[in-house]
Structures are given as structure tokens and as C-alpha cells.
Amino acid sequence: MRTPMLAMLVCALGACSGIKGDYPSSPLIPHAAINVADGLTIALEDIVAGAAVIGVAYYVVDPLAPNWTLRAVRLDEDRYRIAMRMKRFHMGGEGEAMQLFKRQAEDMARAQGYSSYTIARYEEGQESNWISERVASGDVILRR
Q: What is the pLDDT along the chain (144 residues), one digit of tens a residue?
């Protein structure tokens, strides 16, 4: 979902230089500067450009989003497969895959009235796309 919106933003910004015809003659960002200290002024257009860069970086990294996405699939009555994928741009969380896997298995067992679980299979790795992503998956057997 983010990639199409980012592509539209880039296209829209690229199209701005090709606008011809009558439009307001004053610039969108006025020629102004902020006097920060003696001998230090910052142009308003530099502040807006910096804010735009920070906004795009925040949108891509999204530090408030969870680092891992989890998906559980039921294989049979007591057996589940848990697949996990780490987001491409993350702020920590590299060593927490097994901890999250166990927490998900424990939550599933408790929610369905089971007393424990057994990890039948677990593996971690990386998928190489244009930016590699950490992945983990495993099978859990719920016990009464």
C-alpha cells in the first residue's frame, strides 16, 4: 500500500516542474528566512524541504509499527504453523523472533483451552528481495 502512494507522490512532484500557463505568480513557499541567532538565518524553503525529508523517512521507517508480522495457519486439530516476517526498515528487534514465536504459541494454547504446547519445527532465515527481510516459521502442537 505504501509503494503506490509513494510512487504517486513522486510523480506529482515531478509534474510540478512541467506546469505551464497562468497560475499564481507568487511562489508557494515565500522567500523568507528565520533568524535563529546572530549571523544564522535559515531560509523557509530549506525548513520545508527538511521537514519533507523527515516526513518521508518517518513514513518509510514507521517507528511505531510492530517490527514483526505474524500469521498462524491451522494444519489440523492441534497443530498450527506460525509464519513471521520482519519489516524491511526497522528500529531494532533482530533478536526477538523466538521470543515472539513462543509468545504467539502460548497465547494460542491459552485462548483455545490447552495447557501447553510443543514446538515441532522452528527455523529462521532471510529472504533476499531488493532489501532482504528476516523471516521465521515453525509448527506448534497444542497439548491438553
A: 455 566 655 555 555 555 455 555 666 667 777 777 888 888 878 888 888 888 887 776 666 666 788 899 999 988 999 999 887 766 666 668 899 899 999 999 999 899 899 999 999 988 887 777 888 999 999 998
Q: In what order do the strands lie in the sheet with 68-74?
A: 68-74, 79-86, 133-143, 116-127
State whether the Cα torsion 41-24-55-8 is positive or negative. Answer: negative
| Segments of 38-132 assigned E as strands | 40-43, 68-74, 79-86, 116-127
> All 3 cell numbers of residue 39?
549571523
Q: How far apart are the C-alpha atoms of 68 and 90, rounded to whole Å?
A: 9
Alpha carbons 52 and 143: distance in angstroms, whole number: 52
Rounded to two decimals, the pTM is: 0.56
Q: What proportions of the chain, in percent to the nearest 5, are helix, strand and coil?
A: 35, 35, 35
Residue written as cell 528487534? 93
